[in-house]
Design brief:
The protein has about 300 residues and is of the alpha/beta class. It folds into two domains: about 220 residues, Rossmann fold (3-Layer(aba) Sandwich); about 80 residues, 2-Layer Sandwich (Alpha-Beta Plaits), CATH 3.30.70.100. The chain has a six-stranded mixed β-sheet with strand order 6-7-8-3-9-10, sandwiched between helices. The radius of gyration is 23 Å and the shape is globular.
């Protein structure tokens, strides 16, 4: 069952096109990732789906509701966690949850039940009387997520939910997303972290307002028409530009302290690169073929488009 259906969705701001004729569907219970750098149009897309921005053209439906005409109904049906922290710093944790619960029209008994659930889910029960501004970033993110699910929505839109939090908190946050998915909720999540897209059932790679690839993470990586090698070498920054200009290297990217090199499938890169490095008087290095990452796929697709 399709819960989100978008065709040729476009948003212009004056002469600037933030979202450029994107089309996709999201199925019930799916974790659907919108992956791309800052400025790619991810937040603009999610705001149109949530009824916050009106599209310039195209069409779309969320839970069967028209994003052009039924924005108010959509807002009541979905859970939305914005990229920018949207709770009130000068209210306590419990006061924020009470306020957002009342906005969703929860009666007193239901509100108490859902607040208890949100506090337990976010693991912030001990901080319920604290002002929100006193909380660390990770707790604020979990509180924001808790507020977005008070009314038990079937569809969750999460805009950069783990931005600015440490890796452990990111992992914990994704465990919550998995939990919601197991409960049958549909998750639409935007991120610029390539590794987070690995957690999605399907991911759309987005740049300059356009979708440049869309599939499961495994299929996206399998579709890469190149072999990928990792080169470990001292002074990798200095050598990077030189190896990237080699005729048999299709693409070169820096990953931490490694250099990822893409070449035609079946090409004996270890041998040819070894000959080059020996001529350049490099002896302390290691080359190995590796599985491609989504970042390898993304870089290749961006170059292609």
């Amino acid at each position: 069952m399709t819960t989100v259906d978008v065709k040729l969705l476009t948003k212009n701001f004056g002469h600037f096109t933030a979202v450029d004729h994107v089309s996709f569907t999201v199925e019930k219970g799916e974790i659907f990732g919108f992956l791309g750098p800052n400025g790619a149009g991810k937040s603009t897309t999610i705001k149109m789906l949530c009824g916050i921005l009106v599209p310039t053209s195209g069409e779309g439906h969320v839970a069967g509701l028209d994003i052009m005409k039924e924005q108010d109904k959509i807002k009541q049906m979905i859970g939305y966690m914005s990229q920018k922290f949207s709770l009130y710093d000068d209210l306590t944790v419990i006061e924020n949850l009470e306020f957002f619960g009342s906005v969703y029209g929860l009666d007193d008994k239901k509100l108490r039940q859902r607040i208890k659930m949100a506090l337990e889910m976010a693991e912030i029960g001990k901080e319920k009387s604290h002002l929100v501004k006193s909380l660390p970033a990770g707790m604020k993110q979990r509180l924001s997520l808790g507020a977005s699910i008070l009314h038990d929505p079937s569809i969750l839109f999460l805009d950069e939910p783990t931005s600015g939090v440490d890796p452990i908190m990111r992992r914990n946050f994704w465990e919550l997303i998995y939990q919601f998915s197991r409960e049958g909720k549909t998750i639409f999540v935007t991120t610029h972290y390539m590794d987070e897209a690995e957690h999605c059932n399907r991911a759309a790679l987005v740049t300059a307002g356009k979708i440049i690839a869309l599939d499961s993470p495994a299929c996206l990586k399998q579709s890469l028409p190149y072999d990928v090698f990792a080169l470990k070498i001292k002074d990798f920054i200095r050598i990077f530009e030189r190896v990237s200009r080699l005729p048999f290297v299709h693409e070169a990217s820096i990953f931490g302290s490694d250099i990822h090199l893409l070449c035609e499938k079946g090409f004996h890169l270890e041998k040819e690169l070894g000959v080059f490095l020996k001529k350049e008087n490099f002896s302390d290095y290691h080359i190995e073929r590796i599985e491609p990452t989504l970042e390898d796929v993304f870089v290749t697709q961006v170059r292609k488009h």
